[in-house]
């Protein structure tokens, strides 16, 4: 209000009227602008869940941002969502022809599942209507146009799933600059598939999530934990795998405990996990079933539950939880015989597992006896049992991050080929870039995210065999 200062030395005159009118106008404009900004801020959904409700189909405690004063929150949202990508200088361009000298090689067999997952749309193709209808089941929408990514948020995701999943898309764009085609897709980040094949028979809806079943149209996509899960101190897949493999070698096969081991949370509305508690008898059923107390584990910094220290048994049980479980990859990585209780859910890579080759299938209807007979067989056929364990571990070793990006690349490319419209950035979607995700990340998340920052690939993606 400098205009009104020093009135003593300058007597009031009409010439002062004009500046005061200007000042008043500026003031009202500022108030209007602040009001507008406030309005925009309170309507902006973010990768950490500002202004978003939890998914109604799987309610979880809503995130509050009470620790942030409202002004700080507003500045952060303006800065991270509206300004960061605009001024980001990320510009890596590599022509795809740079790959041409590189030998191409075929993708692993389980990539064939991409075609099966997308089969429902081969004859109808995917229209704008398909995508819009799928929105009812989605937490967010990802649109990629010209190598830039836009995200429209509908609901918050539990913990940091949205952040790490969106990060995975951004890393894919970084890894294959100029190669990822334009795409428009809906994503749900909660566990259970929702697009029932019977109910949606007349119009299958394309919805990406972390798993599917034979009875659902949902399209499986690599889950967030490959890039890290800071809430429970799980690091990137490559770091975890190497550590688990090292841990698994600490004890030779002969010296591993000749029992089947499971450690987890039985209280996740999973009948099979409850049933498993009945098998906790090492002499009768050859099994050791332990309860994972997440509260206690969190308090002790997850030292007791370090994944690499959990490979001391010859047999490890995998039991689905509320839906599929991220634990499958860590269990297989141990090199023990993985006893998989006949699964209902599949994720993108589990379609590559072959029973009695790289894991052992357990009958859920005869749960304890079935575990017992696997353990007895393995202890009598040590060489074969060890070989099954090793092949399971090898399968996971081959599932390097490179292959995971290849899978994402081919899934998105094949999906994109089915679109019967040209994707355009949705009017209310904001551009998201690596810096804007980092802008929202807290210190711990930033540490985890930075471990999975990729460089542009020197080799092209593997070749997806023609169908
Ligand atoms: C799919 O829907 C049908 C018909 O409503 C129902 O009978 C079936 O149980 C559902 N399947 C799943 C896996 O929910
Ligand atoms: C299973 O049995 C062991 C040994 O008797 C015990 O320490 C453990 O707490 C039991 N697990 C559960 C889930 O009750």
TrEMBL record:
Stored InterPro entries: CAP10, O-Glucosyltr/Glycosyltrsf_90
Keywords noted in UniProt: Membrane, Transferase, Transmembrane, Transmembrane helix
GO molecular function, a single term: transferase activity
Glycosyl transferase CAP10 domain span: 179-422
Pfam families documented for this protein: Glyco_transf_90
Coiled coil (residue ranges): none
Transmembrane annotation, as ranges: 16-35
PANTHER family: KDEL LYS-ASP-GLU-LEU CONTAINING - RELATED, PROTEIN O-GLUCOSYLTRANSFERASE 1
Family recorded in the similarity comment: Belongs to the glycosyltransferase 90 family.
Name of the protein: Glycosyl transferase CAP10 domain-containing protein
Source organism (scientific name): Lupinus luteus (European yellow lupine)
């Amino acid at each position: 209000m400098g205009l009104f200062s020093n009135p003593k030395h300058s007597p009031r005159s009409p010439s002062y009227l004009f500046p005061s009118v200007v000042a008043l106008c500026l003031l009202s404009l500022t108030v209007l602008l602040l009001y507008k900004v406030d309005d925009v801020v309170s309507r902006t959904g973010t990768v950490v869940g500002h202004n978003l409700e939890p998914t109604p189909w799987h309610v979880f405690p809503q995130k509050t941002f009470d620790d942030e004063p409202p002004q700080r929150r507003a500045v952060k949202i303006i800065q991270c969502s509206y300004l960061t990508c605009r001024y980001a200088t990320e510009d890596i361009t590599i022509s795809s022809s740079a790959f041409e000298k590189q030998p191409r090689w075929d993708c692993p067999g389980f990539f064939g599942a991409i075609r099966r997952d997308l089969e429902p749309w081969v004859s109808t193709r995917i229209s704008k209507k398909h995508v819009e209808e799928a929105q009812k089941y989605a937490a967010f929408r990802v649109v990629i146009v010209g190598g830039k990514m836009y995200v429209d948020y509908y609901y918050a995701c539990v913990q940091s799933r949205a952040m790490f999943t969106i990060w995975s898309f951004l890393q894919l764009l970084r890894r294959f600059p100029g190669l990822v085609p334009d795409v428009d897709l809906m994503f749900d980040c909660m566990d259970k598939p929702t697009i029932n094949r019977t109910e949606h028979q007349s119009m299958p809806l394309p919805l990406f999530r972390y798993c599917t079943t034979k009875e659902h149209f949902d399209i499986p996509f690599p889950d967030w934990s490959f890039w890290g899960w800071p809430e429970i101190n799980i690091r990137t897949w490559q770091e975890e795998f190497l550590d688990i493999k090292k841990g698994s070698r600490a004890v030779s096969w002969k010296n591993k405990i000749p029992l089947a081991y499971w450690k987890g949370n039985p209280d996740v509305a999973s009948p099979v996990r409850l049933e498993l508690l009945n098998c906790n008898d090492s002499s009768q059923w050859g099994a050791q079933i332990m309860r994972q107390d997440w509260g206690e584990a969190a308090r002790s910094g997850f030292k007791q539950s370090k994944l690499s220290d959990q490979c001391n048994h010859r047999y490890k049980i995998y039991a689905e939880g509320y839906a599929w479980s991220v634990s499958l990859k860590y269990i297989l990585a141990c090199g023990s015989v993985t006893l998989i209780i006949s699964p209902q859910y599949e994720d993108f890579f589990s379609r590559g597992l072959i029973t009695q080759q790289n894991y052992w299938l357990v009958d859920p209807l005869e749960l304890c006896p079935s575990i017992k007979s696997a353990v007895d067989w393995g202890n009598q056929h040590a060489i074969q049992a060890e070989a099954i364990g090793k092949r399971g571990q090898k399968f996971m070793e081959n599932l390097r991050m490179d292959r995971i990006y290849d899978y994402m690349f081919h899934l998105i490319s094949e999906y994109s080929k089915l679109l019967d419209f040209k994707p355009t950035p949705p009017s209310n979607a904001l551009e998201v870039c690596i810096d804007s995700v980092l802008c929202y990340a807290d210190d711990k998340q930033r540490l985890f995210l930075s471990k999975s920052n990729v460089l542009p690939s020197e080799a092209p993606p593997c070749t997806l065999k023609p169908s």
